[in-house]
Amino acid sequence: MNELAPLATLGAADFKSAYKPIWCPGCGDYTVLSSLTKALATIQRPPHEVAVVSGIGCSSRIPAYTSCYGFHGVHGRALAAATGLKVARPDLTVIVTGGDGDGYSIGGNHFMHACRRNVDMTYIVMDNHVYGMTKGQASPTTEPDWDNKLSPGGTGIRAFHPLVIALAAGANFIGRGFSGDPNGTAAIIAQAIRHPGFSFVEILSPCITFRPEQKGWKEIVRAAPVDPTDDPALAARRIMTDDGFNIGVLYAGHRNPYPARVGLAERSVAELEREFEL
Questions:
Q1: pLDDT-based confidence at 265, cuts 50/70/90?
Q2: Based on the number of CB atoms within 10 Å of its own CB, is 175 exposed (0-12), middle (13-18) or buried (19 or more)?
Q3: What's the chain's average pLDDT?
């Protein structure tokens, strides 16, 4: 018998679809997509063993730009769909992509409970502090004094702090990347995918169309001055005093993931149906 040929090493290009991204020129999501495909090449799981789920928004187009299985869901419900998928198909690597509007506004409830359930999947949020696809409204992470045509003088509403919420709700891995550092971001995403339980990665992804001042982020972001911790109390103190521009893995916990299957049903569907017969 002939020996089986070794499997070819997968590269980032193997995880890209034939569709050309249509984001605005200069959008950070281009390099986030690149980081994601580089991370998947690092993991070396073939595309048919990976599912990318999204909701609505600029960043939620990502599933169509990969060669993996993809599901483009409704606004704010990506985590709900991904949770069902992972529990039903624990053999798959499940990745969820979205933005600050989709994830923290209409999807905020699902975000908290996905952290709490700790299902083994990775949530990547491209945060640009604005609703880019719908022409520049303030999002949950927008600074309260950001002056624009839709909110003259700013909203006056305190910005949502996703990393604090993620830690308090029970996420097992918390990291932050920057789209201007594609290789560093790819490394963080790969760590997040490999870490058991619910992993949350915030990626600062400038929207220079509606927030051109975010071009200055590249001068502000910096490597986090501390090593990752598995102590939630220490992580809480670090994250609460964080200015939003420290990059790296900020928390890596040891909670056991939600079990994909807790055992076989003791009764058949037919038996259950008979209980409801009139």
A1: low
A2: buried
A3: 91
Which alpha helices (DSSP H) does 9-156 contain, by range?
29-43, 78-88, 100-101, 108-117
Report the phi/psi class of residue 183: left, alpha or beta, with left for phi > 0 and alpha for psi in -120 to 50.
alpha
Which residues span the domain enclosing 181?
20-274
Could you tell me which residues come within 8 angstroms of residue 155 by beta carbon, excluding any fewer than 6 positions away? 138, 142, 144, 146
Q: Is residue 3 part of a domain?
A: no
- 247, 178 Cβ separation under 8 angstroms: yes
> Does 124 have pLDDT greater than 90?
yes
- Model confidence over 189-220: pLDDT tens digits? 999 999 999 999 999 999 999 999 999 999 99
CATH of the domain at 143: 3.40.50.970
Half-sphere exposure of 267 (CA within 13 A, CB side): 7
Contact 121, 175 (CB under 8 A): no
Is residue 191 a part of any domain in this protein?
yes
Strand ordering across the sheet containing 50-54: 69-72, 50-54, 93-99, 122-127, 199-204, 173-178, 246-252, 222-223
Dihedral sign computed on CA atoms, order 19, 25, 29, 33: positive
From CA 119, how far away is CA 171, in angstroms rounded?
9
Give the tens place of pLDDT for each residue, 161-190. Answer: 999 999 999 999 999 999 999 999 999 999
For residue 157, being part of any structural domain is answered with yes
Q: Are strands 199-204 and 173-178 parallel, antiparallel or unpaired?
A: parallel
What is the pTM assigned to this prediction? 0.90
Q: Answer for the pair 202, 115: CB distance below 8 angstroms, yes or no.
A: no
Instruction: Classify residue 10: in a domain, yes or no.
Output: no
